[in-house]
Amino acid sequence: MATGEIQIDDGTFRVTKWTIDPDDAIPLHFHEFDYVVVPLMTGMMYVTSVDGVEITAELEFGQCYTRTSGARHTVANRGTDRIVFMEIEKLN
Known about the structure:
Blueprint: E1 2-9, E2 13-20, E3 24-30, E4 35-39, E5 43-49, E6 54-59, E7 65-67, E8 72-77, E9 83-90
Antiparallel strand pairs: 1-2, 2-9, 3-8, 4-7, 4-9, 5-6, 5-8
């Protein structure tokens, strides 16, 4: 199962802890805001945009990266271990 647990939503930042079980995915969604991803494990996830383009995101524990707003994609876990990461959105 893929779950998102909002830990902070104070009008300036939204911090969500995402967990994706093996053979599951975060369904198609839209990123309205710029965001930072902080992996809490090392592994791979597969990101597919609405136009069908897929990239493999190599996650390394604690090595964060940023993305700009506007993305529409799904995020899949095709591995055997859980994917866990924090997503920090800058709301304003």
